Amino acid sequence: MELKDIEALIRIFEKGSLAEMRLREGDFALSLKKTSSRAPERQAETIAGTVAEPAPAVKAEAGEEIVTSPIVGTFYRAPAPDAPPFAQPGSVIRAGKPLCVLEAMKSMNQLDAEFDCEVLRVIAENGALVQFGTPLFEVRRV
Amino acid sequence: MELKDIEALIRIFEKGSLAEMRLREGDFALSLKKTSSRAPERQAETIAGTVAEPAPAVKAEAGEEIVTSPIVGTFYRAPAPDAPPFAQPGSVIRAGKPLCVLEAMKSMNQLDAEFDCEVLRVIAENGALVQFGTPLFEVRRV
Amino acid sequence: MISSLLIANRGEIAVRIIRTCRELGVRSVVVHSTADAGSLPVRMADSAICIGPPLAKDSYLNVPNIIASAVLSRCDAVHPGVGFLAENADFARSVTEAGLIFVGPAAETIDLLGDKIRARATATSLSVPCTPGSGGAVDESTAAEAAGTIGYPVIIKAAAGGGGKGMRIARNEAELLASVPIAKREAKASFADDTVYLEHYFESPRHVEIQLLADGAGNVVSLGERDCTVQKNHQKLIEESPSGALSGEMRTAMETDAVRLFRELKYSGAGTVEFLVAEGRYFFMEVNARVQVEHPVSELRSGIDIIAAQLRIASGDGLGSTAERVVPAGYAMECRINALEAGTVTGFTPPGGFGVRCDTHMETGAMVPPYYDSLIAKVLVSASDRAEGLVRMKRALGELRIEGVRTNRDEQLAILDSPIFRKGEYGTELYRRLFEEKK
Amino acid sequence: MISSLLIANRGEIAVRIIRTCRELGVRSVVVHSTADAGSLPVRMADSAICIGPPLAKDSYLNVPNIIASAVLSRCDAVHPGVGFLAENADFARSVTEAGLIFVGPAAETIDLLGDKIRARATATSLSVPCTPGSGGAVDESTAAEAAGTIGYPVIIKAAAGGGGKGMRIARNEAELLASVPIAKREAKASFADDTVYLEHYFESPRHVEIQLLADGAGNVVSLGERDCTVQKNHQKLIEESPSGALSGEMRTAMETDAVRLFRELKYSGAGTVEFLVAEGRYFFMEVNARVQVEHPVSELRSGIDIIAAQLRIASGDGLGSTAERVVPAGYAMECRINALEAGTVTGFTPPGGFGVRCDTHMETGAMVPPYYDSLIAKVLVSASDRAEGLVRMKRALGELRIEGVRTNRDEQLAILDSPIFRKGEYGTELYRRLFEEKK
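YS: structure for the whole thing
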């Protein structure tokens, strides 16, 4: 089998609705297979009570973005219990300024905005355990 | 096998209702498979050498009918080894007249036509073990 | 050794038998109805032959097609499995007359044991304790006197019966006289034989059976008991071993009696002697002249493959290494998983891991046809004791995932969680007490 | 007893640990990468926490996120499973410093055993036979003299190494002098430590290991040996017990030495002492300071749940009933099923029935991500002897159905069918002889 034949075969395969194809001629063998559209069937249904939902559960509207947690920790909206929250719906947070604090192993990790943004919604609950990827804020670039 | 043949094969396969297809000719092997329509995944692949295919493998054309075996036995086209067969392609068999003999446990069971018919094709091989539902004849009502 | 075996059955027991065939190098041929054409045993077997349409009477009970399949596919033996033709003496005879080995006891043994009056008489002749009973057939004119001697309540049973069919309980003479004619009519309708007899009826006994292997020459080995008390309408749901209802002394006596009975019968193959345990005593009930659904419970405790033992005995190889005294060890339990509806199993994950065995013909995509027994999986555990076995079984049932078809899984978990089951203080009324009295 | 356990692992070992947690009433919390969000252990565990993106360095090796997950989900212990952080002393220390129980030996023990030179020295001090070797580090100037004493061929090993990484064989002085600098650079790159040492290299030894349980107070129990000779590039493929390479005398001596070593180390938990067997003798190789993939082989022969034993020891409950002398019985074998490609498993049916166990995280629809170890199922059999075990394993592997992802199943069957494996006359070169020399 020559390259142009293989190429043609791949085009045929790609255009068609086949999921998989294998070809062998003498020593020659070809195996084609399409990416499965079958998404992981189930969602982790086992997140404990206080653990916030992982990212895929929240979809941002067009033009809006979801800020997710980069670590596992406890989500705090304010630097101290009696301090005002860093961000509320309507707040505009400049790039490099804190959105919230994520506490893990007694260390307070400040999560800073990566770009200037307006906070539309605070998704995570104050004091909740957040996982990697847990949605924290819905924001819009400003 | 040439490319255009393979292409034609794929088109044929795509239009049809097959879920999977494998072809081998000498050194050449081709395997095609559709995106999971998840039909019954497998077909009994275990029928022994001399056992004829069960019914679902043969589809009759419109207006034609398939006569299948009502019992498990050995299919004989003639009442005795040296006798002529009851039915050949082109034979017209009247209702109640024998089409073939099915031997089981030393008893010869005559299989009679249920209606007047013209035999179009003899599907089962003389002397083969036939199962319940094995296609024996393709006939047309006359 | 048998070289090629026809399996005249379906479902998990067909899978079970095919597995042992593979290990022994025996070719397996499975017969099936059109409804089972896509089933796991049909795919697993070396060969498969369709013998009829879905209804069992036209396929799995179609003796001419089964025998023809065995002969034409050059088998030398037939295994009837469980149910269908497994205790049908005429079938055993037809198999033998076709020149094939029947994997099971001789047709005459099946005949004798199928007649409950003769079976009881045989046990009585060996001084095996039997439930107080009429000893023989009764009718409208003799029933009352017999019942007076036995003591109420009594149960009216069909001599040709089995599996709980056609049995009626009478608590006094008036009920008895009203029930006997009905029971006779039912027996006639179900078994073509209107002979009925009486036994004393225990309200909530334990059901304990002894698993035996015998070589037909009087050598018999016991694999210990199984407690099958948890039943719903005489259908077993949970089996365990050892039984919490037996003292060591009672177990030994029961095993000895069971072995004596099989020796007397010159029984050949695997079989079970069933007893009732009530009021601190045990009573012979009947013999199951076949392998039973719950046989893996004894396999787990003894380490003996009972299907392999059946094939060896049927091949004339006797008891082999199992002839030595077997000492079952540890604890084992089985929960039967029944489908509550027919349909396609859209998702199936069996339980696994340490101490768990799952015998099933299910897999994702499998069909549960509406025509046959509802058993779709047997979940088994082995453990060092009952307490460990219980938590393991709960773990295993929790893991079992069956989607697309409703099952009795949650009901089984409810039984395992019930205080009366956990404490082991129950009898055959357990199911009614847990689920029916509430309603 | 530990009440809530964080499982810092994935795949079949996570499933394995969750199962035991269920039986012991321990709450299970599993951490996972985004790639494993839909996996069976994530679904099975009582709780699951996503700790990072797919790459292991960002998730399964992300110590801060793992510790935070354990603390914030109120676990009192962490099980590292197999691989990833299982033999990482710093991780064990972090777990302990966070106030949690590390299910495994003390960090100092892991440190000592991770340094192969110190481990060897400890074994030597107890007169446990070691492969002739340099005893300590070598460099370009000292290697040749050491090798002359040891005898060629020699193998250059990284002191901080393991799993076959960075090892080089030298058959003469020229090769040695060329290889030492390369080996040092490789060791530096892989383990941030360029210390290397020499051992005599056996061309095709047997690889035999002793499974131990120890309570940290000097009480040690042996669960017998496993023969792990069948390997491909130092990756084990098949494990069996008992080993056909040991005489009864050698087995006793090997077990005694392993127990003495663990007693001296005040080892706590489950662990394995690995030996080479060659020329009729055995030689200490290393200690695996964790549970191993193949631990179920010993579970099948001893009836002891090794994960449960780990949790009991970590809880401070000691060896309990396993403290009595354990006499492993029968024969057991494991075949590892590895995926040869990533993808979606479109059809999966595990093997089952008499004497078969399958530990897996696969099911129809499961994903095999490309980021991690390729192990997708462990097929295990127990049997009365090796001959029976072989036919049972062939039966079980034949039954295993995995669609959508290619696996090494057929290669495993080819090994089982090979005359050298069947006869038991082989060493670690088996795989090469069967599959690589043909090419």
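YS: worth flagging: Residues 76 and 126 of chain B are 5 Å apart (CA to CA).
IM: good catch. Also Confidence is low (pLDDT under 50) at residues 36-57 of chain B.
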